[in-house]
Every structure is written in C-alpha cells, then in structure tokens.
Amino acid sequence: MPNVDIISLKSMRTGRSSAPVSVEVQNLAFKPGCTTALIGPNGSGKSTVVNGLMGLRPDLSVEARVNGTTYADTPPPHRHFLGFASQQQSFPPGLRVGSLLAFHRRAHRLTQTHATAQGLEPSEFSGRIIDKMSGGQKQRLNLFLALGHGPALAILDEAEASLDEKTIRIVKAALQARNAAGLTSIVATHDAEILSAAQEVVLIEEGRVSSHSGLGKLMSDRFGAGVLEITFEDAAERVRLMRVIAESRERRLVVAPDPLKAMVFGTKALKDLPKDPRFGGKRMGLAWRSVTTYDLLLSLEAEEVHLPIEHDHALAFDSSA
C-alpha cells in the first residue's frame, strides 16, 4: 500500500512553461489504499500535476515522496509497482496488440491478468495492428497496460478520453475493484462515472488545491442535501422566480446550465420553496433530487449565479463563467 506525497510542485518562472495556468501545490498527501480523483475546470492544472508527479514536466519544480523515498524533478522511484496511463499514447508502429500484450505479461511475470483489470483486457483485438485501431480502442489498451498487472499504485490522466460509455463503466469497475483490494489509484478526470469510483477528491482551481476531502464530504459541503431544478417558461418568469430564490436562506449554490434553467443547491427545505406564494402556483418545470457526481463536475464548468441580485429591466441575476 504505497504512500504518495507531493511536497512541492510549482511552475518555474521561465518562458518554457506550456501550462495554461501557473501551478503551485504544497504538502498534498494522497490517501493510500483508495482512489483519489483530481478534478477541476478545464485548464485548472490537473494534468499538469499528474505529469509533474511522474517527472514528465521540465517546466515544473517538483519534490515528491513515494513510500518514504524522496525524489525531485525525475520519474518516481519504485516503478516496479507503478502503473501509468498518459494522455499522450505512444505505441511502436506496425505492432500487433497480441505482441504487446505478450510483452506486458513477460515484463510483469504474469500468468494471467490481475483480477482487478480482467474486464479491461483487449484480447478480442489481439490480431489487430495498433496503428489501425480507433482512439477508444487504443485508450483501452493504454489503460490495460497501466492496470493489467495490478500495480500497487496507478496514476491515470483522463482515463475516460475517447472511451464509449460501456468502456467507461468497465474502467469504473476496475477502479472499484482496486479500492476493494486496497490498491492506490490517482486519476485526473472530467467524467462523472469515473469520479463516482473515487473515495477521495482533490479539487484544483487556477493551479491551486482548493479542497481535499472525501467525495461525500465535498459534495455535502459544496451543495447541501440536494438540488431543486427549475426550468423557466420565459425570461419574465426567470426574473420573478430568481427574486424569490435570492431571498431564500436555504440555498447554498445556484448554477445556470443555460439562460432558462437554474439548479438551486441547498438544504432539504428547498423542496418547499415552490410553495411560496410568489412562485405563483408553478408546478411544471420543477424537480427535487439528490446531488450526483455529474452535478459536481457541472458546477465547475457552468455559470454560477451570484446572489443576492441587483435588478434591471432585463436580468434577474448576474452570473460569470
């Protein structure tokens, strides 16, 4: 059960950096024996952190520790128990899948695929030339090479890239199996299914860690007990109802997926908000439900509505992307 810590990871002040934001992470310890998801808005620095941890970013200054061994600006030690899947796939040209799988088995002295990754094994593609496979098929192979030997530590950068929904569910199941086996996984993701397999979450915003906690705690702290979804009939109804929402003490966060929809997160008392006489008896376009991992990811990208509001003749609320 490996222990992984980032002591310091930050962008160097040079013109060499290709990261969209300046990244600085200090004293980040990953909980062993479970899956930790790195999430955040596009361009927040998730992949930069993953690749920095792997020693693949010369534009970063990195000091980290694996199982008590400190390393700096190099690939991590103890690579015999490490599995890594990068977004940058690189396979030898003209190679068949079966040959690469055979090499993988020899390299890790396997007699069979590890139990946690059996669903991922792309054995049906054994005769295919990798160059001629689709992006999703290559990604499945990429993930199997990282997970097929059951590494004690797996680091995955956007595991869901190019995968269809069926294969994403297989990856989720593999992560859950790794959790049950006490193996450590770190995965940067934008996918709600992958995220739901995580027990711990690191939220990265503008290159900094803004939250690190259990998945359930993060969702409870951020959203409360649930979400009231509202679809407005028109802009006038939006203006009227957003005034009522602005005055509610039960709301915690309001997100607008589009101009005629709002998602109001907060306490269970929000279920009774439509009973307010100022809602005018509205019954259609209202739904109360529990919060999901999809909501968590959506809230990082959708417009957040800033309340209380200042009225004008056109808008009921101000928002920023």
Overall description:
Helix content is 26%, strand content 27%. The chain has 8 helices and 16 strands. The longest helix has 16 residues, at 165-180. The protein has helices spanning 46-53, 97-107, 135-147, 165-180, 192-196, 215-223, 235-247, 293-301; strands at residues 4-11, 24-30, 35-39, 60-66, 69-72, 82-85, 153-157, 184-188, 200-205, 208-214, 226-231, 251-256, 261-266, 286-289, 303-306, 318-320. It folds into 2 domains: 4-215, Rossmann fold (3-Layer(aba) Sandwich), CATH 3.40.50.300; 224-320, Alpha-Beta Plaits. The protein is α+β, with helices and mostly antiparallel strands. The strands form 3 sheets. A 6-stranded mixed β-sheet has the order 6-7-8-3-9-10, with helices on both faces. It has a 6-stranded antiparallel β-sheet with strand order 14-11-13-12-15-16. The chain is elongated.
